[in-house]
Design a protein that fits this description.
This protein is mostly beta strands. Helix content is about 0%, strand content about 45%.
Length: about 270
């Protein structure tokens, strides 16, 4: 609702591009009291809109943990349970909780960010600093132009717990409008933390082509001269190319210089 209590879609502007291909038939909406959020799902992807701070979450790739398509859901004890259909089999999962026997993969993904609103950007590479809880493979991926498929991934094998720094990748992803970054790690020991600290993106800005200056022709204010036309309706010109005027009509003005009108609103004049 807007400030005057009318329906408004302004709240959806931050995710409009990411949801632009969502269809009504495949989109599900759930109000989840436990998370104080309204959750929008489509296929295996979800976004949560927090009704307390009026902010959108990063995109949640549910299909990464439970392959399939979200087809329905129900609220039980203030929590959301979703039904996922995969290969003809329906399974029920509790949203925001890992399924039993699932991996201990930790995934964090940023929202899509417009890098250069005035144009586009050429992405040349990334370098990341992050904390791991144990030895194992980690990966930092780049998603561009609102795609759900990673364009590039840089892998780093952590030899133990603690802060880690990846190598600097050397890529070339030209003329991209938006970028999102995901971090994938392992966290089986939940007494320690696995989290990204900083991801630096390297690239160059590519401005849009300058638009040619537009010349706006403002027509002159209409005057009250009577132009002379020929039989075809074209203006008659004198030898100097000026319009020929009918000077037989002189308009009458009052003392303030305003035009005098008759009862029908037509200008009064004398012949």
């Amino acid at each position: 609702m807007d400030a005057v209590g009318k329906p408004s879609s302004e709240f959806a502007i931050p995710v409009a591009r990411a949801m632009r291909n969502w269809t009504t038939a495949d989109t599900k909406v759930f109000a989840v009291p436990d998370l104080k959020s309204v959750i929008y799902t489509n296929g295996g992807q979800a976004f949560a809109f927090n009704v307390t701070n009026l902010k959108w979450s990063s995109p949640c790739s549910v299909v990464t943990f439970a392959p399939g398509e979200i087809i329905s859901g129900v609220i039980q004890n203030r929590r959301l349970k979703i039904t996922i259909l995969a290969n003809g089999v329906f399974k029920l999962y509790e949203f925001d909780e890992p399924p039993t026997g699932s991996s201990t993969t930790y995934i964090a993904k940023t929202p899509d960010i417009e890098l250069n609103p005035a144009g586009r950007a050429n992405i040349l590479g990334i370098k990341a600093k992050f904390h791991t809880s144990e030895a194992g493979a980690t990966g930092i991926s780049v998603f561009t132009d609102y795609s759900q498929t990673a364009d590039k991934t840089i892998s780093h094998a952590a030899t133990g717990s603690g802060m880690q720094t990846s190598g600097k990748s050397r890529w070339y992803l030209p003329r991209r409008e938006a970028l999102a970054v995901s971090f994938v790690g392992i966290q089986s020991d939940f007494t320690k933390d696995c989290y990204p600290s900083r991801v630096a993106v390297f690239g160059t800005a590519e401005e849009s082509n300058n638009f040619a200056a537009l010349t706006v022709v403002v027509p002159p204010a209409p005057n009250l001269n009577i132009y002379l036309l020929d039989d075809d309706g074209a203006y008659l010109l004198d030898d100097d190319g000026a319009y020929l005027l009918d000077e037989s009509l002189i308009f009458l003005l009052d003392d303030d210089g305003a035009f005098l009108l008759d009862d029908d609103g037509a200008y009064l004049g004398e012949i």
